[in-house]
Amino acid sequence: MCRVAVLGAGYMGSAITFPLADNGADINLWGTWLDDDILEASHRGEHPKLKKKLPEKVSLFYSQQLEEAVKEVDFILIAVSSEGFLTIFQKLLETLQTEQPLFTLTKGFVEYDGRIMRIHDAAFDLFKKKFPHENFIWASVGGPVKAVELSNKVPTGTVFGINSPRIQKLLRFFKAEYYRVAVTDDIAGVELSSAFKNVYAIALGIFDGLYGTMKGRLFHNFKALLFNQAIQEMAIIVEAAGGRKATVFDLAGLGDLYVTSSSGRNRRFGEYIGKYIRAEEAYNLMLREGEIAEGYKAMGLGVEFLKGLGNNLLENLPLFRTLDRILFLDKDVSDEIEGFFRRYILR
Amino acid sequence: MCRVAVLGAGYMGSAITFPLADNGADINLWGTWLDDDILEASHRGEHPKLKKKLPEKVSLFYSQQLEEAVKEVDFILIAVSSEGFLTIFQKLLETLQTEQPLFTLTKGFVEYDGRIMRIHDAAFDLFKKKFPHENFIWASVGGPVKAVELSNKVPTGTVFGINSPRIQKLLRFFKAEYYRVAVTDDIAGVELSSAFKNVYAIALGIFDGLYGTMKGRLFHNFKALLFNQAIQEMAIIVEAAGGRKATVFDLAGLGDLYVTSSSGRNRRFGEYIGKYIRAEEAYNLMLREGEIAEGYKAMGLGVEFLKGLGNNLLENLPLFRTLDRILFLDKDVSDEIEGFFRRYILR
């Protein structure tokens, strides 16, 4: 028998219950204070994001029931938004009695201890403050996974960045005919690829918003340059942060950017920008539909994270800087994308 | 003043005349015996593939005028199909008096000296037989370039694999505001990426043919796995053939596969296969419209080329073998693609 707590009832938290349930686990799906509507709808019938019933083995827990949700579980998955991560992780730590395998599907950065940090690093520090002598048993989950497709049991592959054999032994509760799990010890590579692919998917969305409307002319050559540049910049970032380029040149990076730039919220956010809707407006427009363009928030913190890596790293990331100017300095999107080509491509 | 001969008046040969003309070169565009219709139409008005007039600085030469076309030119570009390459290269050598910078846009393999070889290697051998004491000055042109888009002057980047400073000095006749040229000494990496990306674009086309028709369900997760696998296999091939993986993880490989799998003849050929049209039939169907699915022919020779590299290389290329079974053993396309996932992804 196995009981798992999944924290966060959004797309990914809910989708991951399908392979877990198929492997015989009982799942406590806990919703944050923002997930009440989702839980209520799921209780009555379909999960409103995934548009289907959750597995029978899922029990629903409301925000005030965190302690119950994680009680006597074998491991915990965290799938809240990056903005909610620290608050929820701290609440979680209060309820924990001892070390516990922790999996996170949250992507992005947190502001912690006066700095912008990777989620793993902040979680590690908080954990060690409470449990200095226990093991921090961690997996960062990445790779090309659209949640709805996973819940449809479409053939899917994923990468877990892990730090312990205890995690390795638990992978059997994830692995399914339709959900294959690769493993690496490059947690930084997986985590940063996951976060930055959302950012670069916005750039590709912008491109489609901008050039998709110019009927009768195709711009595949240009788009391939952007896609390639995004991958190169992700590799530079990961290496600068102590991860491995090879992680980016595989499922966690190029596989995930491929899928994320094909469809989804960050891509759609980018398309709005490419159609000359301002970033804040596009973000709020989507928020009113209950959709969060996480890459936009990751971007804001991402700039600070990259500055923290020093060595004038940003100088080597012209596409990132272009995106920064479009989203945060409100520069003309067409000028910026064309200027990026003129100034930086193969110069 | 600069005069260039371009051999082959198809998509790429004709498109490359645009940046050359913009850089002030005069261009002798020579058509093979298969290009008569193209030349006649281009003479009267529009190039029938590019659907536009060629630059003023282009002079047209018919198949029997090869000697005139290459007389007193400063360098030569070869842009014929891989099937025509050897014959035309031999004819070209007969007319050459001395060493001459040679650029090739031809992708694929040739049967030479009882083996399947890279185009560069066969050309080198033929050249050295005639000119044992002269320099073989060579560029293999790769990277993500749709010819029509290049002729539309869409922002485009390309990679030249080169072996001589003489080539380097000529790059100014190519480089344009809309056409950026990167350079590498990894000719094998560029050439093999160019050839195999056509092969793997067929696989992605098959995928879209097969899954694009299942309305209401998306399979982006699965497609990302295929795209990623294609890149990994191209990297394995290039390394086994003496090139560098880094070449594949950049414009020449992932940039080019990205664009080639987005649109074009090889992708379209794959889509037919995914809709259960047999390979030979799909090839002929396209041929009747004057379109050649080059990846299909490259695939046939590619298998032999890979076997020649030894070390049971094919065992590490499950997607390639899957494609081989679909195209040449006429296996059920859906079984094969799903079987590929079941048997090989992250196992």
Describe the structure.
The structure is a homodimer of 347-residue chains. The model of chain A has no long low-confidence stretch (mean pLDDT 95). The termini of chain A are far apart. The relative contact order of chain A is 0.10. Chain A is globular. Chain A contains 17 helices and ten strands. The first copy, chain A, is 52% helix and 14% strand. Chain A has an eight-stranded mixed beta sheet with strand order 3-2-1-4-5-8-9-10, sandwiched between helices. In chain A, strands 6-7 form a two-stranded antiparallel ribbon. Chain A is of the alpha/beta class. In chain A, helix 8 links the parallel strand 9 and strand 10. In chain A, helix 9 (187-211) packs parallel to helix 12 (251-260), helix 9 packs parallel to helix 13 (265-274) and helix 9 packs across helix 15 (294-308). The interface between A and B is large, with 45 and 45 residues.
